[in-house]
């Protein structure tokens, strides 16, 4: 029914959503970190238009950085892993863009939807981890960060903010590296409806909204 991973592995987006408080069911993150293949709930969302808009924004941001003189790496070129030795958890991710300059380096993520607090964690975590990751070319670099939204809004982050995240990170990774019973289950309709873990693995899954609750 499910295939265990060789070791705990957490994807950047799952970690960002949990650390930011966007998602509160830490058991769901623990389960995905420990199981590679499991029975999933089908996602019926039509992502085609979103992906096209994101590709356009990503391309235009890439071009603008090139025009400023940066050497830009994009998506799969930025795929990194970082192993936390104490918990043995591996963090994986791939920032949309990494812009490399002679004296300045930027981790960027582009967003076409509305702004969420977890977006900043999706930038701050790789800012903190890239210099300690498997990508040797970044070992001596310091990064600042930037979120670019489709409506033109831009949010910038400095190295101090990434250092603060790095200080907090071990607490969360040790939960993921620990036993299943220590990971708290917090089922709710608001989270369960977007969670891919089926009721086969999570009997607490809530599959319909409470009576009288309006969709938002």
Notes on the protein architecture:
It contains 6 helices and 10 strands, in the order E-E-H-H-E-H-E-E-E-E-E-H-E-E-H-H. The strands form 3 sheets. A 5-stranded mixed beta sheet has the order 4-7-8-9-10, with helices on both faces. It has a single domain (3-192), classed as Lambda Exonuclease, Chain A (Alpha-Beta Complex). The chain has 216 residues and is an alpha+beta fold. The longest helix is centred in the N-terminal third of the chain and has 20 residues, at 48-67.
Give short descriptive properties of this protein.
216 residues; alpha+beta; Lambda Exonuclease, Chain A; five-stranded mixed β-sheet; three-stranded mixed β-sheet; 6 helices; 10 strands; 20% strand; globular
pLDDT averaged residue by residue: 95
Envelope shape: globular
Structural class: alpha+beta
Count of separate structural domains? 1
Roughly how many Å apart are the termini?
34 Å
Radius of gyration from CA coordinates = 18 Å
How much strand content do the residues show? Answer: 15-25%
Give the biggest sheet. Answer: 5 strands, mixed
Secondary-structure element pattern, one letter each: EEHHEHEEEEEHEEHH
CATH architecture annotation = Alpha-Beta Complex
Number of helices: 6
User: What percent of the residues sit in helical stretches (DSSP H or I)?
Assistant: 25-40%
> What strand order characterises the main sheet?
4-7-8-9-10
CATH topology: Lambda Exonuclease, Chain A
Q: Uncertain regions: pLDDT < 50 for 5+ in a row?
A: none
Instruction: Indicate the CATH class.
Output: Alpha Beta
* Tally of strands: 10
